[in-house]
Write a sequence for this structure.
């Protein structure tokens, strides 16, 4: 089992605050790093798939960076809105695990008005 | 709508019983993944199939088995059920490459009493 760690476990911010979370993963046999957003009572939805060291992806107010050499990725949300409240999951794909994705436990974000 | 269909939505059964969960992948996707989400746990990878063949195996118990059929739908069989098997079981599909995002079904909520 490949260890994928996410921090913090939960976060409570005010509307308008910017925030960021961390995903740590094994730095060897790296193939891909995924970010998903999981709203209550729904299924996870993909935000980003990142493959290259130094990769940066952006979708609206949400962006992510990737450092494969040291084994971490950051997810940033600028100007958080209540609709950003969700659990954010990262998943690591390794070349020695059949490319299956192993998920972290997620960061639960609550944005209050 | 992710295009991934899981049935049933809910299942309540007794200890010792056997159940089958079904998943139809998104049109065009060749790979199916099964994940288990228990209370306070992240998404635990169980098994991955690609075009009918098992590709990767995760933390799947011997009492559990799965297969992918020629029409690409997949079934997850859980036998000799225990209380601890109560969980949300997700199926996801993709083209099979770790650089492609997973598309998740809505999950099957299994309750073992």
């Amino acid at each position: 089992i490949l260890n994928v760690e996410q921090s913090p476990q939960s976060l409570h911010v005010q509307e308008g605050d910017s925030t960021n979370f961390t995903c740590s993963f094994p730095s060897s046999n790296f193939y891909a790093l995924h970010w998903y957003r999981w709203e209550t009572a729904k299924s996870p939805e993909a935000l980003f798939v990142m493959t290259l060291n130094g990769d940066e992806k952006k979708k609206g107010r949400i962006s992510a960076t990737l450092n494969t050499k040291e084994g971490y990725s950051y997810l940033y949300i600028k100007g958080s809105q209540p609709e950003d409240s969700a659990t954010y999951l990262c998943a690591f794909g390794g070349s020695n695990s059949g490319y299956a994705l192993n998920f972290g436990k997620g960061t639960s974000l609550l944005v209050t008005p | 709508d992710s295009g991934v269909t899981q049935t049933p939505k809910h299942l309540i059964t007794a200890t010792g019983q056997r159940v089958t969960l079904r998943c139809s992948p998104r049109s065009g996707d060749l790979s199916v993944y099964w994940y288990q989400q228990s209370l306070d746990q992240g998404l635990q990878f169980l098994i991955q199939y690609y075009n009918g063949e098992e590709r990767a195996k995760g933390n799947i118990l011997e009492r559990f088995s799965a297969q992918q059929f020629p029409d690409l739908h997949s079934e997850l069989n859980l036998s000799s059920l225990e209380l601890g098997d109560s969980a949300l079981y997700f199926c996801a599909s993709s083209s099979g490459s770790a650089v492609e995002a997973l598309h998740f079904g809505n999950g099957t909520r299994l309750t073992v009493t």
User: Anything to note?
Assistant: Chain B touches chain A at residues 2, 33, 35, 41-45, 48, 55-59, 90, 96-107 (CB under 8 Å). The CA atoms of residues 15 and 82 of chain B lie 5 Å apart.
